[in-house]
Amino acid sequence: MSEAIAAGKFVELSYRVTDGRTGHVLTRVEFPLGYVHGHNEILAPSVHARLEGKSAGDVVEVAIDGNQIFGPRDESLVFTDHIDNVPEEYRQVGTSILMENDRGQTRSFLVTHLDDETLTVDGNNPLCGRQVVFRLEILTVRDATQDEIRAGGAAGPGAGVDPARLRPL
């Protein structure tokens, strides 16, 4: 009988996030994500709750309202500037730019639009304002070691899943 996800279990999983309206894949993990359940909650609480009791080989889908996690979209975090005012290295859609305000607070902005005359950046989380679906494939469930509990995830040399055991979603 396989082990079930519960507090103190080391869990490795892969996941992808799709837009609930369009079905387009927004992001996916390239390598297995490892954590200690109940000690290092790295995903949204509603995702962790749905993982409880699941085992290696299970696939779980969780619909999430991005507004509940990241708050509502804030249009004041969207800026458009003339392309000549933007350094060359930032002139590509998808580029992340770390900016600092006059109080020393930093925020990551993403280049979302570029044309011959303007460049637009957006400081909202890309999941903000979207209904998304997390599709998680559980790869490993076992008792966590003391080192993993202290680290909150995989610990030690060679930690992680053997890439030969991975398969596409």
If you had to describe this structure to a student in words, what would you say it looks like?
This protein has 169 residues and is mainly beta. It has three helices and nine strands; from the N terminus they run E-E-E-H-E-H-E-E-E-E-E-H. The protein folds into two domains: 9-69 and 128-154, Chitinase A, domain 3 (Roll); 74-122, Thrombin, subunit H, CATH 2.40.10. It has helices spanning 45-51, 66-70, 146-151; strands at 9-19, 25-28, 33-36, 59-65, 78-82, 96-100, 106-114, 118-122, 131-143. The protein starts with 8 loop residues before the first strand and ends in an 18-residue tail after the last helix. Strand 1 (9-19) and strand 2 form a beta hairpin. 11% of the residues lie in helices and 37% in strands. It is elongated, with a radius of gyration of 19 Å. The strands form two sheets. Strands 1, 2, 3, 4 and 9 form a five-stranded antiparallel β-sheet that branches. The chain has a four-stranded antiparallel β-sheet with strand order 5-8-7-6, with no helix packed on it.
Give the topology, please.
Elements: E1 9-19, E2 25-28, E3 33-36, H1 45-51, E4 59-65, H2 66-70, E5 78-82, E6 96-100, E7 106-114, E8 118-122, E9 131-143, H3 146-151
Antiparallel strand pairs: 1-2, 1-3, 1-9, 4-9, 5-8, 6-7, 7-8
